Amino acid sequence: MLLSSLIAAMHHLAAFAIAAALAVEFATFSRAITAERAKAIQLADMTYGIASIFIIVVGILRVVSFTKGVDFYIGNVFFWVKMLAFSAMGGLSIYPTIQFFSWSKRLKEGQLPEITVTQEKLIKRLILFELACLSIVVVAAPLMATGFALCP
């Protein structure tokens, strides 16, 4: 029981790390970027990636090894809502991640990233959509955990 609780806590901490990373990216990203902010965004994005991998590994462990069993999750619509929303977050994050890490060479040369108006709008919008997907995950999680069903 203690191990199950610790695994659940790690799962939640990874989710909070993802939320924090997205908040940093959204609050910090703009065309008028400094080198320090660009590096902070890169660090936040790396944190997001690592926390996402961690949450997947721990989530799989929770499904197959702890508490409710695989059948509980596989048959629960809110489990699939969470999986879909989390997968959408991953897909939405690809373009911003590529852009953020394309800045590395310029930053090493002491230059600032070049961000077009179109890139700024698109990346801001993608991060907002990621945050919306995260909100869906947060709403679906307790519905899934309690076994709530859309149809009795």
TrEMBL record:
Key words of the record: Membrane, Transmembrane, Transmembrane helix
Domain of life the protein comes from: Bacteria
Transmembrane segments: 48-65, 77-98, 126-151
Pfam families in alphabetical order: DUF2214
InterPro entries: DUF2214_membrane
Name of the protein this chain belongs to: DUF2214 family protein
Lineage: Bacteria, Pseudomonadati, Chlorobiota, Chlorobiia, Chlorobiales
